[in-house]
Amino acid sequence: MANNQNLWARRRILATGGAVSAATIAGCIGGNGDDDNGNGDDEVADISEYQHDGEEPDDQDRSDSLEFLQPADPDEDYDPVISFDSYSMQVANLVFDGLYEWDDELELEPKIADGMPDEEDDGETYIFDIQEGIEFHNGDELTASDVAHSFTAPVEEETQNAATYAMIESAEPIDDYSLEVTLEHPYGPFTMSTMAVPVVPEDVRTEDPEAFNTDPIGSGPFQFAEFQPGEYVELERWEDYWDEPMPYIQDIRFEAAPDDANRVAQVLAGDTDVIDTVPATEWDEVDGADGVRIHGSRSPSYMYLAFNCNEGETTDPDVRRAVAHSFSMQEFVNEHLGPAADPLSSPIPEVTDESGGWEFPMDEWEEEMPEYDPDQAQELLEEAGVPDDWEPRIIAPEGGPREALAERIGSRLSEIGYGADVQGMSFATLVDTYNTGNVDDYEMYLLGWTGGPDPDVYYYNLFHESQEGVGQGHFYEGQGDFHDNILNARESADQDERRDLYVDVTEEIIEYLPVLPAYSEHNTMAAREEVEDIHAHPSVSYNPRIVSDYQNTWIDE
């Protein structure tokens, strides 16, 4: 299981963060510091300004075509049982329907399922009913056996997705349209996360798994038309789609365009229809361009500064507090990311709190966070006995806003008499470095995580002691029941109980700062103006949604 968790952690880390050019980093970090002295604009832009109302076409019998550029090369695993990257899943989520799916507010709603499940045995057993008459692309009827296989295959086949379903003891069909899922123990995130399983046809998939991975058959609104490895995937509308509405888009082509400037240039020139991820460095150019609109949505992403609590000066919580007082996170986010991100004051993004109905005391947590106060930072470091020549090593992904944030922290520490050794690294090097706990490797690191509507994804993976050296590198021992509270919240089906436990955990994080929350980066797309009724989804793997209860994308030519 540890290997699966490690791979899962790496992918969630790799999936986050946009690019910033080296020139921008140098230009922004080398200023006179007025922005951190409270003289800059401290208003955070509202991403809701980039959500546009959709329109219905006059002619609803349409056969439109759309090209979509992705910001990274997908792994090209289109079988959702094994698919482990967001950009392969952007394709797969149009081919497969889920038992449940997240709407545009990250609330789980039935899709293949016929309503919400019946819960028994204090959250250890769930009875699901599924809709009758749903067919896969090959004409086979979707049954409870297919749903059961979709739940159990990731663990049985030891895939990288195993951790998501590892708590399932059994999934057994009752009849063709109902099944019983039994858990090894109550698992709080089950009804908020695990039930969103994409459903695959068991017989076709198990007959030839390798072929299924690159020519999959689902029950979704689109089916594979052509696949050229390393080049593109083309999907075509499935004319016998079982659900409504029928997509207006007839075919869609996915291509990777990892170079930010090239991807932006293509949409500005009208050479493509939609691009995923508007780089912060290109935001103003895209936002002000004729014929192009930015579409944005808050996301459950969580960027953070983590401290080495195992070795070095940062084992002292006062040193960690000093670093937090030495710069302004809000000013950094405004300057470097603008409308593309929101500052954070806890490990829980606002969209996670709202979509899960947690009602966490977010305003109180924000007030408790250390504010920019260089005098206080200097005093704390002196009282902690930190030597005058202290230059902590800060590691971060190279060439992005997190490296820029590391440079900002180093610059502000220099202003109060210390310094920093900032090292931008490739992701491959960084993930082999940040979890060693060795002070010679780092005293701070900057990374990101992407989650969903359940806090367990953040707290367990980023703070529980079982994940030391796997998904985290701060090695925080905690006070009292810190780690027990995280585990108890994970294994409880009572949301009120879980909320109280998470509040205690968060208050300790804010007080002792093993990790300093940074910002949540929004999901964004840029589309030609003729692309109508397209919306950025909070989950990047759902973009482009194309068709749902609240949208049906079309091209106004």
Automatic annotation (TrEMBL):
Keyword Signal annotated: yes
Keywords on record: Signal, Transport
Stretches with biased composition (Acidic residues): 33-46
Keyword Ribonucleoprotein found: no
Top-level division of the source organism's lineage: Archaea
InterPro entries to which the protein is assigned, alphabetical: Peptide/Ni-bd (IPR030678), SBP_5 (IPR039424), SBP_5_dom (IPR000914)
A single BP term in Gene Ontology: peptide transport
Segments of this protein annotated with the region Disordered: 28-79
GO molecular function: peptide transmembrane transporter activity
PANTHER family registered for this protein in UniProt: OLIGOPEPTIDE-BINDING PROTEIN APPA, PERIPLASMIC BINDING COMPONENT OF ABC TRANSPORTER
Protein name: ABC transporter substrate-binding protein
